[in-house]
Amino acid sequence: MAGLPPSTSDQIAEAAGLNERYVREWLGAMVTGRIIAYVPSTRTYRLPPEHAGALTRAAGPQNMAVFAQFFPQMGKVEDELIESFRNGGGVPYSSFPKFQAQMRELSGTIFDATLLDVTLTLVSGLTEKLKQGIAVADIACGSGHAINLMARAFPNSHFTGYDFSDDGLATARAEAQDWGLTNAQFIAQDVAALDVQDAYDLITIFDAIHDQAHPRTMLKNVNRALRPGGTLLAVDIAGSSNLEENLAAPFAPTFYAISTMHCMTVSLAYGGEGLGNMWGEQKARELLSEAGFTLQDVKQVEGDILNNYYICTKR
Questions:
Q1: CATH 3.40.50.150 occupies which residues in the chain?
Q2: Which of 245, 236, 246, 240 has its CA nearest to residue 288?
Q3: Are 121 and 127 in contact (CB under 8 A)?
Q4: Per-residue pLDDT tens over the stretch 192-227
Q5: Domain 66-314's class?
């Protein structure tokens, strides 16, 4: 609809290849929800450009439609979650079959928009080092898009992605092959058992520390994998560890809900700590220091109110 002039339900259904009766009923919800504009005299519907700007792929990281896909996914685990409320434990990762693909779409738009030109430049001198050639690892790399973007941009550096998802790694390898990359590899690995020493100059972790069953062990393994003086760039939710300090954060209710229904419960399902995605900056500082890192800075990126960017060096 973002590319259509004011159109009837028949025209919209034909353009989308959908059943008109379902489209018309859906349009009723969108019109009364003030998302789509309606002209009764012509029975035509229009998606205003300012609304399309938040609901289509053209919106990039601001596309709320991508984010909204998580809610029906989490609704499918309602019975398991209620059981966990009563008896403890958690809902395992395997109960979220579409989560990997949804995270790939969400994080992919963010990486495409900000990784090379914004995120990496937060670390002083890092872009130049990447051009010259260093060893980089991405922990819990998912579908590996961040690794592949960096590998394509910095052919003199070598990149390794670690994750335990076979589906995610298969997607990562396929993309690397399609792009003709020879400096990117992907390893199936539970990062809580990562046993690598002094191998990398830079390690990145994008929105994954809070998901770990054993985040303290993982961070200690990451510290060991870094070379002396190496850098950890970790991105995670910009909340407070103190509930009362999150009252003014507009995203806090959503993230506490997502944490209850995915992040925290998945960690608990594997006997983990259950940090939850609102673990907060105070707890992050504690765990990073405990793992042997010196926190150089905590930065934020203009336009991104959701994340903190932790820049650390190995002690």
A1: 66-314
A2: 236
A3: yes
A4: 999 999 999 999 999 999 999 999 999 999 999 999
A5: alpha beta
